[in-house]
Amino acid sequence: MERDQVGGALALGVGNKVLMLENAIYSILSPEGYASILWKDASRAKEAAEKMKLTAKDLYELKVIDKIIKEPNGDEIESFLKVSKSLKKEIKNTIEQMKDMTEEQIVENRYQKFRNIGEYQFI
Question: Which class for 111: exposed (0-12), middle (13-18), buried (19 or more C-beta within 10 A)?
Fold first, then answer.
């Protein structure tokens, strides 16, 4: 598995727990921008998007994010309320899990999280 774009997105979400909506993308650069830089051809954006590993599924597998929040189908208001409820639940659970941790434990937990992101291949 390639690992060529995971590190840059860390600037967007440095925390002990990172959540992502299932239909969102997570990247510091658009696929068009990536394709323009890599191949000098923005029309290769689809190919770039696949290499970038920016979907919730990809990032969960690479351990960049901790949980994917499902997005229900339906009208906008109902979907918004359901997603908001899911986010609230996850935030409360995380606070409950971390409330008795010391500052040192929180820092170590975050350090270990980032040490375990992605896959590394030595060549």
Answer: exposed
User: What 3 state SS string does 40-62 have?
Assistant: CCHHHHHHHHHHHCCEHHHHHHC
Residue-wise pLDDT for 38-77, tens only, equals 999 999 999 999 999 999 999 999 888 999 999 988 788 8
**CATH no. for 7-115:** 3.90.226.10
Closest to 21 measured CA to CA, from 80, 95, 96 = 80
C-alpha to C-alpha distance for 11 and 34, rounded to whole angstroms = 17
Predicted TM-score (pTM) of this structure: 0.75
